[in-house]
Amino acid sequence: MKSTFQISNNIRTLRFMAGEMTQQSLAEQVGVTRQTIMAIEKGKYFPSLEVAFKIARVFGKPVEDVFHYHDTRV
Fold first, then answer.
1. Mean pLDDT of 23-38
2. CATH assignment of 3-73?
């Protein structure tokens, strides 16, 4: 049985709940580019642990509330 995984995130929702925070504002607080935040939100790029924790810290959430790991069996 082959194991695959998928990582999803709630960044867009959390930005909305944080007063409609822009991608640019989040990027500046985390120390990355807006394009990086956009790619992470779309699931096209997975952040390093450091960046994941920084994003979670901006929202005052544990990293597990921001990023979700899904293990799927094929």
1. 98
2. 1.10.260.40
- The dihedrals phi and psi of 7, each to the nearest 5 degrees, come to -115, 130
SS3 39: helix
Cα dihedral 47, 48, 54, 60 sign: positive
Rg over CA atoms, the chain: 13
Convert the pLDDT of each residue in 55-68 to its tens digit: 999 999 999 999 99
Sign of the C-alpha dihedral computed for residues 45, 50, 53 and 55 taken in this order: negative
Cα dihedral 4, 9, 31, 63 sign = negative
